[in-house]
Amino acid sequence: MRTWGASPQAPDNSVSCIDPFEDATLRQIVRITGGGHRIRIRVSNEYGTAPLTIGAARVALTDTDDTLQHGNGHAVTFSGRSAATVPVGAPILSDPIDLRTAALSRLTISLHLPGRVDTATCHGTFHALGWLIPGDATALTSPPADAAPLPAQALITAVEVQPEAPTQAIAVIGDSRVDGMGSTPGTDRRWTDRLAERLAARGGQALCVVNQGISGNRMLNDGIGTAALARFDRDILATPGLGHVVIAVGNDLVFSFAPHTEETAGLLSMFPGTPVGVDDIIAAHLQLVARARAHGVKAHAATIAPYGSSELYSAEGDKAREEVNTWIRTSDTFDGILDFDAVWRDPADSTHIRSDLHMGDHLHGNDAGYAALAESIDLSLFN
Known about the structure:
Elements: E1 2-5, E2 21-31, E3 38-44, E4 52-54, E5 56-61, E6 74-75, E7 84-86, E8 91-93, E9 106-117, E10 122-123, E11 129-134, E12 148-149, E13 153-154, E14 156-162, E15 168-174, H1 176-179, H2 191-202, E16 207-213, H3 228-237, E17 242-248, H4 251-256, H5 262-268, H6 278-293, E18 298-302, H7 315-330, E19 336-338, H8 340-344, E20 345-346, E21 349-353, H9 367-376
Parallel strand pairs: 15-16, 15-17, 17-18, 18-19
Antiparallel strand pairs: 1-14, 2-9, 2-11, 3-8, 3-14, 4-7, 5-6, 5-9, 10-13, 11-12, 20-21
Helix pairs in contact: 2-9, 6-7
């Protein structure tokens, strides 16, 4: 059962990039959403340019001050060996690790890479905690003074858990509003994190929430990250224990209708491809729903929240957004609707996010904004 995930990306000139390094330890903290008595860790060299050598790896439960809980560190092995080489273009899954975890536990995962790594498969993110430490630091209980903060999630793309009772995963495919841009870094305040907290608090059947958002992602065109239609099988349908998918990708219309000005030129250059319209977005949703249901998975959709006064806003784009939202609400295509547009829009001007819910750019949420999204979700959708 997948309990945590981060969609792998090719390093680029956005946030998904780590400079080359050699003989260093990547120490990263992740918060899992569902617990169990055994875990496995997935490491990816899918976008690497050379084989990736793992010299040693360890995992441990982590306290709130980012130090390891005393006496619970576990060596991680791969096919029975403490060291492993991951071929170019491939992931590697660790052996099962006997580690009892509760829902919402924090894990520190340390990977020692003894060779030179020129191209690390990454996940550009705004919320994770990670450090680059010289040498083999896998046994350290806390980051040393010379640890350098990691600018992106690196190499680790999933944690899987063997739960105590039958469990399902909710996998969310989305863009920066899913990936949590604008939330407080290192505090797990994306709306998917808050949803996991609500699900854990209600009791009953356990559910894992797996965030597969990529900031800047689109449905139909690559740009920052592979397009959602292209990565859906890898990032969503291949999720162990998958029971539900939430589709929350809204960037296609934003970038297709964005004004071309001196201020937006640099940003828009990162998003090549053919502009798309309402019919294209509807067709893309129908494709994802069909592919999900072919795997016996329930498909839910989030409406696209407003973005008035952002530098990418246009009246034409907003009109297209409203048309897509009307279709999502009324077409009876989905098993459930997450009406994020209704939660965030300003009652005085439906083209804008409420001023207390965005980070200041009129496009992305803040902690309160993401909390409001999570609180609005009908948990019975996932029964």
